[in-house]
Design a protein that fits this description.
about 50% helix; alpha/beta; six-stranded mixed sheet
Length: about 350
């Protein structure tokens, strides 16, 4: 009996000892995971653990600096243009008239901008008559440039303290410590400026993009309205080029608000038929004349260019540009781009 009691007591002690060891082991495991958790929290922060927006720190404890960006400058108000187009619909140019219309249709939607004025008229019989104008004559609505916030003021860096000759080691150490603080302050000021520039650039890009989208919508609506008018209803037996130039000059000279002024002519430059009236002398002061020239005889073509170059000069126009190309769209777009 005594032996059985002793055996039970021994078994109870063993179980208690094992329970104690298990409890101690569990405690050690709990401590280990607690340390690991605290380490993670201190290293990455609570925000990282919960997948929130997080920016790691530099080794010195400063937050990441804003990248340097060139500030977006204010948009300059550019003067709108006056574009006048003449298309020959005489019998001698009949095979090219529709081609000229297609070229115009390919070019205008790519170059027109709010505020521009577009006019289109025929060269033919009685070219000075208002009846020959088949498009527009009125300005495209304008859209005000977006207002951009003022540029942030760039801070001036603080000067470092210079070490004087004869300074003691202690004084040099103090100056070095002071300069470290000045450098850190300068970096903080510059970083704040860079961040302000970034924020302003973000807002400026949004405003500029909206202005560009609104401008494109306006031009598309304008073009959809006028495109049907670019079609030939009849052809003429006469080619009164100077009369057409006279009518164009009246509008181009009256509208002084729009500059530069372009006069684009699709023709073979051959006058034909008696003029409707005499004494026509167009004034094309400072107008850029662009002639898209079609003629079959190369020698005759060069002679016509020389003659008309002199004629345009006497009218006060800028030196004319002659284009002899089956696909003049790219060059026309380049010449008409607003700069």
């Amino acid at each position: 009996m005594a032996n059985n009691q002793n055996s039970k007591k021994l078994n109870n002690k063993n179980r208690l000892a094992e329970a104690g060891r298990n409890s101690a082991l569990f405690g050690l495991i709990l401590v280990f995971f607690t340390v690991i958790s605290l380490t993670l929290l201190s290293k990455w922060g609570v925000e990282k653990l919960f997948d929130r927006e997080f920016q790691p720190d530099h080794e010195d404890g400063d937050t990441l600096s804003c990248a340097i960006e060139e500030p977006i400058l204010f948009l300059e108000q550019i003067s709108p243009r006056n574009i006048y187009i003449l298309i020959d619909r005489s019998s001698s140019y009949k095979s090219h008239s529709n081609w000229a219309l297609e070229v115009v249709k390919n070019v205008l939607p790519k170059v027109l901008l709010p505020g521009d004025r577009l006019t289109a008229a025929w060269i033919g019989k009685n070219s000075a008559s208002p009846d020959g104008t088949f498009c527009c004559g009125k300005p495209i609505s304008d859209i005000a440039l977006p207002y951009l916030l003022p540029l942030p003021e760039k801070p001036l860096p603080k000067d470092l303290v210079e070490v004087d000759e004869g300074s003691s080691s202690m004084e040099i150490m103090q100056i070095e410590e002071k300069n470290k603080k000045i450098v850190a302050e300068n970096e903080l000021l510059l970083n704040a400026y860079n961040c302000a520039v970034q924020e302003r650039n973000r807002e400026a890009k949004k405003l500029i993009e909206k202005w560009e989208i609104d401008s494109k919508v306006l031009i598309n609506e304008f073009w959809l309205e006028i495109e049907p008018s670019f079609a030939i209803g009849k052809y003429d037996n006469s080619t009164h080029i100077k009369e057409a130039l006279y009518k164009a000059s009246l509008l181009l000279q009256q509208d002084i608000e729009r500059n530069p002024r372009f006069l684009i002519i699709f023709t073979d430059l051959i006058e034909a038929g008696p003029p409707s009236f005499k004494g026509v002398y167009p004034k094309l002061d400072e107008v850029q004349v662009i002639v898209v020239l079609h003629c079959d005889n190369a020698e005759k073509c060069e002679q016509l260019k020389i003659e008309w170059q002199s004629t345009f000069a006497n009218m006060g126009a800028k030196s004319p540009i002659f284009i002899q190309d089956s696909y003049p769209e790219e060059l026309l777009i380049s010449l008409l781009q607003r700069r």
